[in-house]
Amino acid sequence: MKKFLVIFLILVTFFSCKNEQNNELVFNIYSAPKSIAPNKSSDTISLQVASTIYEGLLRLDDKNEIVGGLASSYAKEGNKYIFDIREGLKYSDGSNIELVDIRNAFLETLNKEYLSQYSNMLFVIKNGKEYYEGKVDEKELGVYIEDGKLIIELKEDVPYFTYLMTLPFTSPNIKGKYTGAFYIENLGDQEIKLVKNTNYWRSNEVKLEKFKYVYFSDFSTINNLIKNGSIDISRVDSELLDGNINSYYNGRIWYLDFNVFGDNVLNNVHLRNALSLSIDRQKYVDKIKKDGSKKALNLISDIFNYEPSYTISDIDVNKAKSELDIAKKELNTNDIKLEILAGNTPVEVKEVQYIQSQIKENLGLEFSVKVVPYKDRLANIKELKYDIALNTWSPKYDNPISILDRFTYKKKDVKVFNQKEFQNLLNEANKDILNSKSKIQQAEKLVLENMVVSPLYFSIENQYISKKVKNVVNHPIGNITDMSYMNFK
């Protein structure tokens, strides 16, 4: 009753604010961002917000082409990228954006103590990893200023480097100073109010004067808010809402994440195989998801024009039971009890209950379920406070390696597959452009054949868009909606 009252009061307040500001676009981003710092915004929700208020050296335009951002242009000489920074760049407060500020963004991201989620992406820079580990000083780092230009020198050229430069971590991170199309007017518990940054270099192209991000995760509530005209853009359950749905694949993979760190029963590959083989993925997407998601038997989506060389086996109950028998003998136990962790949204609750029922029905195992808010799910997984998790990962840049990066486990002791071999394959894929696909296929196979995780499905983004919203530009990789092109009438 108390929970219902709190939700009711939030909705009343929200409706009231909407009625007072019916000319303000409202974008529901599902939950509060973990961080709005440009170099700590690695989850998709945080990346959505950070990309709205910060701009990188380069950017994606309305055709998803890489164009100039803070840098007007760049030239390439071997492994060197030479960036010309725009003249007269200003922060949202009107102060000048200095070239040294942009260089400092790279130094901060590569500062180990800052704990940036993007630091490993910059290890492609000459001495990037060595600087991160404190083995060299900033004078030896391949990011420097020369003749009024920013020079970035790589160890070896990688095909996706310019895409990395579109991410917000290449923007200066100074409190209260924003480089993007909008700045934050107010950061609240239930919403973020944003205002057009008139000092942004292309502000004359930005149509929105103001808008706000709000956080609602219950699809029934979202549906009611949409029908009331109180939300203009939101991820939705397409089953609950007809019309005005913009759908696209973004490369996101959902999977069973096994805690294979430390000494526990899930270190047994036969147990992991049994659990994976017990799940009917086609029924999962057809009867549970019902939103256009595709079953996955590998990790890397065809959004990358990629074909796997290896896929896991689909549901096979007899083989699953056989694998479970082997696992019980090797573990010397018949009593296997584990907990499955998931988010507490209605959709995730429905999914994890399906997984629980499949394991019970096909293997006779009764696992408990723990559902927690989004932030707590991420924290539990990071702190290894789980047995099995319904987890997900989305690409941050336009290359299959951005999916496999998830499984490098830099700070965790992994015994269930050859981590060194896996990392070497990724390194070789970066170096050897001609044979990159083969190396990536081998690395993916290494994860899959050892059942480090069990792929479930590739998700689709179903986005409600009000008829009042025009010029919606989505960047599928990273799953970002670019607010700088949007109009609201």
Q: Could you list some keywords that capture this structure?
A:
single chain, 489 residues, alpha+beta, 4-stranded antiparallel β-sheet, 14 helices, 30% helix, 22% strand, globular, disordered N terminus
Unreliable stretches (pLDDT < 50, length at least 5) are 1-10, 15-21
Mean pLDDT: 91
Structural class: alpha+beta
Strand content: 15-25%
Helix coverage percent: 25-40%
Distance between the termini: 39 Å
Number of strands: 21
**Oligomeric grouping of the chains:** single chain
Shape: globular
* Gyration radius from CA atoms, angstroms: 23 Å
What is the tally of helical segments? Answer: 14
Major sheet summary line: 11 strands, mixed
What does this structure look like?
With 489 residues, the protein is α+β, with helices and mostly antiparallel strands. The chain has 14 helices and 21 strands. The radius of gyration is 23 Å and the shape is globular. The protein starts with a helix and ends with a strand. Residues 1-10 and 15-21 have low confidence and may be disordered.
Describe, in short, the structure shown.
The protein is built from 14 helices and 21 strands. The chain has helices at residues 2-20, 44-53, 99-109, 128-132, 161-164, 219-227, 269-277, 281-289, 317-331, 346-363, 374-382, 401-404, 419-431, 436-449; strands at 25-28, 58-60, 66-68, 71-77, 80-85, 143-146, 149-153, 182-187, 191-196, 210-214, 233-235, 245-258, 294-295, 339-343, 368-372, 388-393, 453-465, 469-470, 473-475, 480-482, 487-488. The strands form five sheets. Strands 1, 8, 9, 10, 11, 12, 13, 14, 15, 16 and 17 form an eleven-stranded mixed beta sheet that branches. A four-stranded antiparallel beta sheet has the order 4-5-7-6, with helices on one face. Strands 2-3 form a two-stranded antiparallel ribbon.
